[in-house]
Amino acid sequence: MGCRVLSSPQPLDGLQVVGIPMRVSFRGITTREVALIEGPNGWGEWGPFLDYPPPEAARWLAAALEAAWGTWPAPVRHTVPVNATVPAIPADDVPAILTRFPGATTAKIKVAQPGQTLADDLDRVTAVRAALGPSARIRVDANGAWSLAEASEALTKLAAYDLEYAEQPCATVEDLAALRRDLARRRIDVPIAADESIRKADDPLRVRDLHAADLIVVKVAPLGGVAAALDIVAATGLPAVVSSALDTSIGIAAGVALAAALPKLEHACGLGTVGLFTGDVAASPLRPVAGELPVCRVAADPDLLTRWAAPPKRAAWWRERLTATWPHLPAAARALVGDRTSPRAD
Description:
35% of the residues lie in helices and 18% in strands. It is α/β, with parallel strands linked by helices and 346 residues long. Helix 1 crosses helix 12 and helix 9 packs parallel to helix 10 (249-261).
């Protein structure tokens, strides 16, 4: 499942840029581009989405350097459970997607997709419940796309499906808190999870301070690494769900390391997403077996790096992006690779 001994470290300047097509469009992405870095301790993945500015991309770079040059906290478990991830696809396509997540008893379903309606979301959730059965856990993710009123209406109707939780139904922390109060007042039992309000926030602890969520979703790359994410979980004091950011197996391994290091792991993790790609950079991709992933390091396969290599213009774009991002990198992360003031772009 992608675990093997690592060797032959290369300098940070040897950025390996790949572009792997998605099996279905996911949040508008049809080809996932990421840059891979090999250091003395293994491989790191740097894949901030293309519209993210350098200060935000710097947190993702810190996570990649931690993986390649630093260390991860010791695990307290050897495998982690994972959920199925269902994009905003037609309900008829749900069974085929679920086959890519063998053994999963939890499903996260994308909702509130631009151009779709609440009826589309209800049909999709109905199809997942029918496919997985009454004992499965079902969660929905709106990526902050609903207004407070829209979220209240949607979750009132979706509550009939016995949701495990609703992830980031509204964009702001204030609206999450107001929605949570509204649902409690009306005795609608849908827990609220904060995602973007954690990973894209200047102060993720506002979720805790405003009582805006019942649990939090944490992702290694946007939070600056495994250690940084663990600190945020501890500071909020809330249960955590570890999820991916459309990572290759190298990025997924970092997510698994985070999930394995959490003192408590009460929910399946959103780390089974490699199956959404048409390929991967590991010879044995990190795909779930019996609904679980192993805790291990993953190495990029040279032949697959060549197979999925991005066109030269795209690779040059990523190298220029690295140069622009480097000044925003925290000093501790920069020190991991020798405290250079900037990397070469060639």
